[in-house]
Amino acid sequence: MNCRSTGKPPGRFESNVRMQKRVIAFVINSIGFGGAERALHNILAGIGNRVDRYEVHLILLDDVPEAREMPSYVVKHVLDGRGRLPRSLFLLIGKLRRLRPALVVSLLVRANVCAAIAARLLSIPSILCERMHLGSHLDGKHRGLRRVLAKAMPRLFYRLATRVLGVSSGVTSNLVTAFGVDPARAGTIYNPYDLDRNAADAARPPEFHLPDQFILGIGRLTPAKNFAQLIEAYLEADLPYPLVILGDGSERRSLEALIARHAAGDRILLPGYARNPFPIMAKAHFYVSASLNEGFPNAMAEAMALGTPVVVTDCPSGPAEILASVSKLNPSEPVLAEFGILVPERSVAALAEGMRLMADPRRRDHYSRQARRRILDFRSEKIAEDYWGLFDRLAE
């Protein structure tokens, strides 16, 4: 089984330096375009002056193309797990045995399961970071026996970790009630956002030609993001500007067919994935999401950071926590929450009404100001310190 490392091997001087540092190993499936990978980058970039105290290693379970750069002080190791849990676990145990870190931190389910088992076998403290509302995420992704098995893995092995962090209180609550995580070992730390970098990225030219005015949706074109219902709601709302949906995925053809059936190709645009979505977010009238499950919705939060108002479903979990400071509202109609508009799940009529409400210029201006104010609570400097403060305590 193959694995490879990137970065310069330590010489004698570097070995002496390493002896004075504690090693932290971060584990993730791969470095793709997703929100977990962006959150990991922001956590690693938030190390600050601790870079003199820690040797940071990043272990990727799969040898696949990478979508983003990590900070230069991170030593990267690429395994060849091929998307398989047993193979990933075997390779990870070998890598951790050689690195002997003071702490293992993991993100995403397969990496979390592998890290929990490997760290327990090697008597290393571990922190698992769960980015999704796991119960609803797995219910939407699998059926029958596959769903039972998918839920069994975290239920059996997350409890082996020293700490399990949810990215919102709804995620954490689900881990405790549905997956047997000990409440004493569970905690919540939100996603961090680099507001200065987002603003700089937003100042660049957009990758696609855009209408002068438009509504924006972002996400993988998968059933969980519920773009078919978003399209139906947009058509029912009958707004005077087009809908742009950024992203790609398995539902592209079915969504294109839906748009064609409504003869709406000039009003609903699917330009694809944007490597830098921030200029497009900044230009949008407002952001809209019909998602059926989240953890802490990155695209929504990033749009808010740029002053873009949001209309989103009250799905588990994260939207209500960000917009109304509660885990979930369960509304029967659109709610004008403190920081954005929340609508009930799976309701075309309610989502259409939420979009019509946000089309009002004065309401848009109000929620633009509120969005910027709210995201200050999740700025990288604050949230990264929450993570690294915990790492400090456990790496001792």
Quick summary:
The chain is an alpha/beta fold. The protein has helices at 12-19, 35-45, 85-99, 109-121, 134-141, 144-157, 169-179, 195-202, 227-237, 252-261, 278-283, 298-305, 319-323, 348-358, 361-375, 380-395, and strands at residues 4-6, 22-28, 54-60, 75-78, 103-107, 126-130, 163-166, 186-188, 215-218, 243-246, 268-272, 286-289, 310-313, 335-336, 341-343. The chain contains 16 helices and 15 strands.
Overview of this protein structure:
This protein has 396 residues and is of the alpha/beta class. It contains 16 helices and 15 strands. The chain has an 8-stranded mixed β-sheet, with helices on both faces. It has a 7-stranded mixed β-sheet with strand order 11-10-9-12-13-15-14, with helices on both faces. Strand 2 (22-28), helix 2 (35-45) and strand 3 form a beta-alpha-beta unit. Helix 3 crosses helix 4 (109-121) and helix 9 crosses helix 14. The model is unreliable at 11-18 (pLDDT under 50).
Break the fold down into its secondary structure elements and pairings:
Blueprint: E1 4-6, H1 12-19, E2 22-28, H2 35-45, E3 54-60, E4 75-78, H3 85-99, E5 103-107, H4 109-121, E6 126-130, H5 134-141, H6 144-157, E7 163-166, H7 169-179, E8 186-188, H8 195-202, E9 215-218, H9 227-237, E10 243-246, H10 252-261, E11 268-272, H11 278-283, E12 286-289, H12 298-305, E13 310-313, H13 319-323, E14 335-336, E15 341-343, H14 348-358, H15 361-375, H16 380-395
Parallel strand pairs: 2-3, 2-5, 3-4, 5-6, 6-7, 7-8, 9-10, 9-12, 10-11, 12-13, 13-15
Antiparallel strand pairs: 1-4, 14-15
Helix pairs in contact: 2-16, 3-4, 9-14, 12-15
